[in-house]
Amino acid sequence: MCGIAGIFDMCGRAEVDRRLLQSMTDAIRHRGPDGEGFYHAPGIGLGHRRLAIIDLSGGAQPLFNEDRSVCVVYNGEIYNFQPLVDELTAHGHVFRTRCDTEVVVHAWEEWGESCLARFNGMFAFALWDSRKQSLFLARDRLGEKPLYYACSRGSLLFASELKALLCDPRLDRRLDPLAVEEFFALGYIPDPRSIYASVHKLMPGHFLVLQRGEPLPDQRPYWQLQFSDGVAASSVEAAEELVHRLREAVRLRMVADVPVGAFLSGGVDSSGVVAMMAGLKTTGISTFSMAFRAKGWDESGYAGEMAQRYRTDHHVRIGDPDSVALLDQLGDVYDEPFGDSSAIPTFQVCKMAREAVTVALSGDGGDEVFGGYRRYRWHCLEQSVRQCVPEAARRLIFGTAGSLYPKLDWAPRPLRAKTTLQALAKDPIGAYFSSVSVCSDALRQSLFSSGFRRELQRYNAVEALRRHLPGCGSENPLSQVQFVDFKTYLPGDILTKVDRASMANSLEVRVPMLDHTFVEWAARLSPALKLHRGEGKHILKTALGPFVPSGILYRPKQGFSVPLADWYRGPLREGVRSLLNGPVLRDSGLFDPATIRRLVDQHQAGLRDHSASLWLLSTFERFLRKASGYGQPARAEAA
Q: Would you call 99 a catalytic residue per the annotation?
């Protein structure tokens, strides 16, 4: 696992700023503490930081083809590199290392852009072809590895993390109003947007080919996940194939020349990954989990049960309110506002794991792949009602009833009839957006200042979800919201959280559940095998029955999060009040101070649970405090 950075003169062949490239590469040193490397040629500069995983002595980057006309800097792992080496060797290519990275340059020579279809892995890379004078940027299918880019002074800057681009003092730092809207709706900023209007993320499963003298092209897709209405397979057959495919995905991700361990939360997905590892590894496995003292938040007992069953070398760390002291550090880790509070325990478990291993396997992705979120169940129930009533009647009946019913956000979901009635009045994606929104439409309208609302020009973050739906390939409501999550929540929240937290600790995290062949197979399964009689991940739990205790498989779902609501009413009470009513948010011109005071007062009085919204405001306050010149264009005198 590594970090990459680069500068490409899009207009000519001027010498790139070597000091800037060095600074950009230094900014992501944490992603690769084992070494650095650079490539310079007229109009192009590539930088690399290395975390050595495979071929520890011979895999330094940049790496080249035989005549050094093709050069690559690469972040990630190609798990099927050995069969590709064999195939490319048969075509006459000569390999000088045992590193998976070298496959990229020879695959480009042999197959061009279509080489991406042959890679099974997680990656973001930049490849320079001096013969074609072209720069090839690509990102893996599901978005495990990040890649940011921006145009500045006629050059394209790119890097694994936003902080590297910010090394250029002339980069335009004006905020993107649409990104702010999306952040307060969703808690993250979906691809391809970033918090800065001038900076974009390369989307998962996309690439760019840049030619000197030509304008910046649009991102182009090379892969699209397709859901179908379901393969007619029996539960027994599907369960058997699931175990076979999952075991193979785990096996591929255990290949390394350094110690490999696993996260173990005590949930279904991480337990399944550890069980597969135990069946493949002859020596002991190191596992890592977090524990909380707050009642109802601690899963460490379940993790301990799995660790005991498979005799792993198990490590546990306690999370407490002092963990929020990490918030300033997390602001540096994530660069832009990031609103998932589980970033705290994720960072801590990564830090703990790095003390013992260099690679850790994770159970992330299981909920998206097999329909495990509770919100999927509610969406499908609501859609079954919605389909029975014509749209015009839905809006009249449910919309009117919803407006009259009292608001009970504090109550369990079945009792929140106002929320349900309002959802039934909406179209399916509008209703799903409401269910995943951190701050509702009404709250955002109240929270944002009148001036900022004018900047938005009525843009609503629901469009970040809606634009993806036509590519789903299925009319099934479960498949549709899974697809939308694959395009937004999974790369924007889950994988961003894990990548930054792990790389900040120089740890490589691999995600077997997101092996693209495994994901494609699962997308073809009948939705009834995923959500069965109100139970999510039905086929995954059935398949893991022989490997994981039923008390873990069938216990109520518990997210990997922290007890913010209690902390904000207890040990963090005064801190959050002071922070959110301070000058940073007040003077930004983005927010209505009276609404912020109301949210804090209502939460601390126990009238409403606004902890998620308060967390977003807290993370945004720290971003604004750290951002340099966030409200202004880059100063001309910096040139």
A: no
